[in-house]
Structure formats: structure tokens, C-alpha cells
Amino acid sequence: MIRDLIIKIISCSILILTSSVSRATDLQKTPDFLSDPKAYLESVNHALKHLNYEGVFVVQHENKMLASKILHCANGQEITKINTLDGLPREIITSGDTVKSFFPAYHSIRLEQGQVRRLFPNLITEPIDDYLGNYTLSYLGDDRVATRSCHVIEFSPKDNLRYPHVFCIDNATNLVLRTSTLSMNNEPLITSFFTELKLDNNLVHSQLSPSYKDTKDWQVENVNLENTNNMHLGIAITQLPSGFKKISEFSRKSPHGKGNMVHQMYSDSLSSFSIFIEDSDPDAKTKQLIVSKILQNSLSFYSAEIDHHIVTVVGDLPINSVKDIVSSVSFSRSSNQ
């Protein structure tokens, strides 16, 4: 009887091991829906543009979490309205290439026109080839987010100059439900995810109108985000990672009240970084002030003085990439001209 019991235990162990190996092998297989990565990402982009929904999502970075309510209406014209639920109130309304941000605590409005960094969940946009040129897609299995089943898809970089990203994409609608940026050790750096989600075909544009009506006395800041290379021809980045393109550029007053600061934004469609450039100041504290005022809650940043300018790069990139970008900046003439 003991011999029979041992045989049964061994048989069960072999069966469990075989089953586990089989499941692991299945996870490594490319499912049918991912056999054409471009078509799949196009379907995700279509869902993000054309679905009407409302919900609550959370952005988690280190030990900080920020919840926001979101409404998205695609009836004829795509409009998104986001209201923060934690901390100081802020309302963001996006329509086309225009972003209007309301800061009621300061009685101010920021109006941005041009290409801006996309907000969760609108993270897969055209051209789709930009994603496939820099990342390889792989299926990691299925999960659940906000009670909905989703496919877990990893975007693995084809070089060591950017971070991997993991998306959880709704099985039924192809809507992005969760996204994480991972460190080089595969630890989450920043994660955004829905906690509540409701598809609502009855949403109308009037529900996405500004919540703040009496703003005639509010201060309005207009920012035109140019996407051309004509504004500051004297600035060059000789070690720009492959696939990154400048998506916007503008000048504004330096936060130190001395001259202007140039702000350029670059993206490979999934990762992004900003570069801030201003004339250096004899005051040795200038560099530290830039870091403390601009770089809060950033994933990676680096600041250095180059050719009488303070150059600062902030982005969701490995720190070595950020340092390389800063060190490769050169000037043929003053960036403030």
C-alpha cells in the first residue's frame, strides 16, 4: 500500500508539473488576435477614439496615488473631460488638438494648442508603425481590471534606451484599461488603471462642458505648441534615441524671472521626454531651483550647464538615456534669439 501511495504521489506531481509547463508554454504562444500587431493596435486606436465611456482611473507613482473622473464622448466630435478627485481641483477638457485646463484654486486657465502629450487611456494613436519600429509586442496572459477581462500585452523596447511598457487591453472592446511603465528590473515605475468603467452610448457633448462658468476674471495663459523645427535652429541634440521626434516647442518666461525658457517635447509614441533650456545665471543655485520647481514627480531627470545654458531633461526613460541626451545638446547661437 505504501508503494502504491508513493506511485500515486509521484504521478500527481508529474501531472501538476506537466500542466504548469503546458500553461507556461501557452502563455508564450502568440494568440490569433496578436498575429497581426499592426491591425491589433489599429483596433485599439479605433476603440479609444470611438467609444463613449465614463469612469474613474488612478495614476500611481512611487507611494503617491491620484484619482480622476473621466468622461469621453465620440458622437461626431471627440471630447474628453477629466476632473481630479484628490489634491487641488483641476479640470482638463481635450478636443482635437486643443487642451483647456482649469485651476479654480488659482482662478487660472491654461489653453494649449498643438501636439501635446496624451493622457490615459488615450495612449495608442496613429501612426501605428511608430510603435512597431521601436517595440516588440508579446502576450503575457489575461487579467481583470475594473471587473473587465483584458489581455496583458508587453511592449518590449528593441534597445536599452527606453523602458518596457505593459498594457491591459479589454477583451471585448479593445479599450486600454491599465498601463504600466516598467524599470529595467521590471518593477512598476508608474501605473494608470481604471477602478470604475461604464460604457455609455447616451453621453452627449453638453455633459462635457466646463464645470466653471464664471471665469471672466480668471487669468488665461495661451500656449501655442509648435511642431516645426524653425523656432530655435541653434539647438541640436546629436544623441537623440532612434524613433524619437519633436512633437512641440514653445518659449515661456523663466520661472526665475530672468529671460525666457525653451521647452521642447519629444516622443516615440509610447515614451516621451521634455527638454528645458535657459541661459545660465551666475547664481550657483539656479540649477537646483530648476530641478526643484520643474522636475517634481518625474521618472528620470538630469540637469547640466552647457555653453552658458542650463539644460534639463525630464522623461520616462532610463537615467543613462537622459544623461546622454543632455550631454549631446549643442548650440550654434543663443536659444533666446
Q: What does this protein structure show overall?
A:
- The chain has 337 residues and is α+β, with helices and mostly antiparallel strands.
- The chain has two domains: 33-208, Clam (outer membrane lipoprotein receptor (LolB), chain A), CATH 2.50.20.10; 226-331, Phosphorylase Kinase, domain 1, CATH 3.30.200.
- 19% of the residues lie in helices and 42% in strands.
- The strands form three sheets. Strands 7-8-9-10-11-1-2-3-4-5-6-12 form a twelve-stranded mixed sheet. A five-stranded antiparallel sheet has the order 14-15-16-18-17, with helices on both faces.
- Strand 1 (53-61) and strand 2 (64-73) form a beta hairpin.
- The chain is globular, with a radius of gyration of 24 Å.
- The model is unreliable at 1-27, 227-231 and 288-297 (pLDDT under 50).
Q: Which word captures the global form?
A: globular
Instruction: Provide the helix percentage.
Output: 10-25%
Low-confidence stretches: 1-27, 227-231, 288-297
Annotated CATH architecture of the largest domain: Clam
Mean pLDDT: 82
* Total count of domains: 2
Q: Kindly, what is the distance between the CA atoms of the first and last residues, rounded to a whole number of angstroms? A: 92 Å
Characterize the biggest β-sheet.
12 strands, mixed
**What string gives the helices and strands in order?**
HHEEEEEEHEEEEEEEEEEHEEHE
Q: Which radius of gyration do the C-alpha atoms yield?
A: 24 Å
Helix and strand content put the structural class at alpha+beta
CATH topology of the largest domain: outer membrane lipoprotein receptor (LolB), chain A
CATH class descriptor of the largest domain: Mainly Beta
Count the E strands: 19
